[in-house]
Structure formats: C-alpha cells, structure tokens
Amino acid sequence: TQTFMVPSAIIHSQIEHCFTHNRIAQNKHLTLKASKKGKRLCIELLTPMASVIDHQGLGIGEAYIRAKLNEVCEQGWELTSAENNSLWVTRYSYTPKINLIKAKEKAISL
User: Fold this and answer.
1) N or C: which end of the chain has fewer CB within 10 A?
2) Measured between alpha carbons, how far is 14 from 45 in angstroms, rounded to an integer?
C-alpha cells in the first residue's frame, strides 16, 4: 500500500465537475487511479460519458484546483482534462512540497 498526499478537495471538485458538465453513462463507474514515480504523484479520474452538457460555468472549480496545486505542490505540476472516446479523463501530476510532507509526518508522529 502506498500513501499519497492529495491537495484538499481537488478530487471532490473534479467529481462534481463530472456531474455538472456531462451526463454520466448508466451502469458505469467512475475510476480513480493513483501512481507514484519517484517523488512525483499521478492521479487519474476516468468518467464514462453518455453525452456532454452545454454548461456555461465560470471555471471556479478548475481555478480552485489550480490554486490548491500551486499552494501545496512544487512548480511543474500538470493538470489535463479532456474527452477521450467515451470517457472524460482528468490527470494530475505533481510533486508535493517537501516541507509540507515533513510537517505532516511530524504531526502524525506526535
């Protein structure tokens, strides 16, 4: 089992985005994958789509996700979100800031 540091509420925001911006295909499941290469973490959310909704959002959810990644990750993080066949695929790739990891480890050890 691996432990991942995920910026607060980014997955929640992305799942909410899936439901407000497209129709989820019936009898299908969301898939969340996580992997680690060295210090870099990768998270992938795959959402089956039945159809895309013409949503006129303000981009607040994506702005929040980008702000959280800026706050707790080293520079060079990546966020992609696009349709791929019958799936909406969102990928996060980032390296958590070391000082935040050490603070979390210290908090756990107390």
Assistant:
1) N
2) 8
